[in-house]
Design a protein that fits this description.
652 residues, five-stranded mixed β-sheet, alpha/beta, 12 helices
């Protein structure tokens, strides 16, 4: 299931990426027929594999692609245009979708091309430097303002870069696929007034934990399907049945608690929950669904409460660690393959008599071969689990007690700490010849933010740059900046004793510089580019392609020897800050109208140039007593050294 989700996500992203690139490279309003055919073929093939599991109907590809190709970053919607949406951009913080107004969002219908208006290439931020696409986009935050009363069907469906969704207390419902397939969304606060979460409402999200409001009345099928990082939650009192597919493929799920009297576990409710060691089956349960715990490979013991009359088909199939199974005498049937693949199960403890067992209806391959049955076995009837949940560093401790009069038996469960999920780290203190540097890593788990540091060795003593290169003037305007870049191994010479400060910076060179800045991380795989003829930049281009910092100039070309302009450098550096360093946007962009040629900055580069000017990275060049940006001017290696030196000294 997880693979299917990822396949769908990848294909949708491919379609998004293809069309965002086309918007810049093709004529206005035209779509390249070949790329459309490829994109349509990809998404149809993947959806055909996926739609049955997630119950997605057939797709109207023409309508979807037409809607997606309509560029917009703001607009009104809802009944009588009662709501307004707008996407704002901070290059270092990505894009933020804000929805405001008073009233309800209308339902959207993604399969039939009725997309939420912000689900278009421009609002999602799929465009990168040089008119290419970035696979995940830049829409990282969603803020819904007070007055909006719902998150409707498909409203926040498939936002692959979103890390934060803020809902107001005025929201009372989350619709079908309302906030689904947001794989980077690790945490979210659901308002107290929410009473309904629709089918697959939070499916496929990156949630590590979620608190459901006490007033929740309705929880749809597949609500948390494929939330692969979810470790636990508590169902409110009004939820009396675990819906079908509710926690299907929640591979890190450790436990589920219940505030009310749950009487049924739905079909495939916990299928594929590979981390469950205890089955969350409360004492009031009388019905289990088909494949309810299929593939729960860590499940070791199960006690079915009195009142359960059937173990349905494939209910515990492939629970390979299941060694202790207790069945009440009320069970009258065991379905097909109910325990097939339970290789650790050698005996079943049955509270009924041998005669009652003989009358039991057993389906084909109901029990593993060789399993014995212990008759008249005592069975405890437990209450709810209570205790603590684990976090990144601390185990969770859970207990439950038998409710039978005079018993007092208790059962304990230790849930392992989840462990940190650290990012790739960033240099917070650059090393020098006399002091070591520091690289800081931050845990990405929602609510944790733990860090650890790694020492970066001192730099080796450097020969003065003016002595290493014949063409670097020690009194020149860029000498200190060139020296900084050379001494920090960001830039090197072009051959012999030449640095070529007045030479034009190429795409391959700037990619190599950023790869050096990132610490030359290990890379694997290939690129689709057929014009990479030199060995020295191969790893750097692969890294840039994988991270999305710099894309190709077409599907199969990178154009490594093409010069870069000043505005392109600004976009690349700001993209690096955003996608690799994950810097927060803490400053206001500059007003480009202060420069005589500020209007000449390309639309796709304006935000990045404004950020770079505000940070002092990009400064104007004095021409005829005027300070000009020269956005389309080719960037020399000396100018790039100056930009890099300023960029590296931005406070962390």
């Amino acid at each position: 299931m997880k693979k299917r989700l990822l396949s769908l996500a990848l294909c949708l992203v491919l379609v998004v990426g293809l069309f965002s690139g086309l918007t810049v490279n093709a004529s206005a309003g035209k779509i390249d027929d070949l790329k459309k055919e490829i994109a349509e073929k990809l998404i149809k093939e993947k959806i055909e594999q996926f739609k049955e599991e997630f119950e997605i109907p057939d797709l109207d590809m023409d309508a979807i692609l037409s809607s997606f190709g309509t560029a917009a970053t703001s607009g009104d919607f809802g009944e009588n245009n009662c709501l307004h949406w707008e996407v704002s951009t901070g290059v270092l913080s990505g894009k933020t979708l804000t929805i405001s107004g008073t009233g309800a969002m209308p339902d959207f219908d993604f399969p039939n091309g009725n997309l939420a208006p912000w689900w278009n290439y421009e609002a999602l931020g799929m465009l990168t430097s040089f008119g290419n696409f970035k696979l995940e986009g830049e829409l990282k935050k969603v803020v819904i303002k007070d007055g909006v009363t719902n998150v409707s069907n498909y409203a926040l469906f498939f936002l692959p870069a979103a890390t934060q969704v803020t809902l107001p207390e005025s929201v009372t419902s989350i619709g079908r696929y309302g906030i689904a397939l947001c794989s980077k969304l690790t945490g979210m606060s659901i308002p107290k007034g929410v009473t309904e979460i629709g089918d697959f409402g939070l499916a496929g999200d990156g949630l590590t934990a979620i608190t459901l409001p006490d007033g929740l009345q309705t929880l749809g099928r597949g609500a948390f399907d494929a939330c692969a990082s979810l470790s636990g939650t508590t169902l409110p009192a009004a939820i009396t049945a675990v819906p079908d597919k509710c926690f299907n493929d929640c591979t890190k799920l450790l436990t589920v608690d219940y505030k009310g009297e749950v009487t049924a576990i739905g079909e495939r409710a916990f299928e594929g929950c590979k981390s469950l060691t205890k089955a969350p089956i409360p004492a009031a349960v009388t019905a289990l669904g088909v494949s309810a715990f299929n593939g729960c490979v860590a499940l070791t013991d199960v006690t079915l409460p009195a009142g359960v009359t059937a173990v349905p088909d494939a209910c515990f199939q492939d629970c390979t660690a299941l060694a202790d199974m207790k069945l009440p005498g009320t069970v009258t049937s065991v379905g097909h393959n109910a325990f097939t693949g339970c290789t650790a199960l050698t005996a079943i403890n049955y509270s009924g008599t041998e005669a009652e067992w003989a009358q039991l209806t057993k389906g084909e391959n109901a029990l593993p071969e060789g399993v014995t049955v212990n008759f008249n076995a005592p069975i405890h009837h437990y209450g709810f689990w209570t205790g603590t949940y684990p976090n990144c560093t601390t185990e969770g401790q859970r207990t439950r007690a038998c409710k039978d009069d005079g018993c007092g038996h208790t059962e304990e469960m230790t849930l392992p700490a989840r462990g940190h999920y650290f990012d790739g780290g960033r240099v917070t203190t650059p090393p020098t010849e006399t002091t070591t540097g520091v690289r800081t890593y931050t845990c990405k788990t929602y609510g944790c933010n733990a860090t650890y540091t790694e020492e970066i060795p001192k730099l080796a003593p450097q020969v003065p740059v003016s002595e290493r290169f014949n063409d670097v003037d020690p009194d020149g305007w860029a000498y200190e900046d060139i020296a900084y870049c050379v001494e920090h191994s960001l830039m090197s010479g072009v051959g012999g004793r030449s640095f070529a400060p007045d030479g034009v910076m190429t795409r391959a060179q700037i990619v190599q510089v950023l790869y050096n800045l990132a610490g030359e991380p290990a890379v694997a795989g290939t690129t689709p580019f057929t014009d990479l003829t030199s060995d020295w930049y191969q790893d750097a281009v692969l890294w840039a392609y994988r991270t999305g910092v710099v894309a190709g100039t077409s599907d199969t070309t990178f154009d490594p020897d093409a010069p870069v302009t000043r505005e392109q450098i600004a976009v690349i550096l700001m993209g690096y800050a955003d996608m690799v360093q994950h810097r927060d946007h803490t400053w206001l962009p500059a007003d480009l109208s202060a420069f005589p040629d500020g209007a000449d900055v390309s639309d796709w580069a304006r935000d990045a140039v404004a950020e770079a000017v505000a940070l002092g990275i990009l400064n104007g060049a004095e021409i005829n007593s005027e300070l000009r940006l020269l956005p389309q001017g080719q960037a020399t290696r000396a100018q790039v050294a100056t930009l890099l030196e300023g960029f590296c000294k931005i406070p962390a």
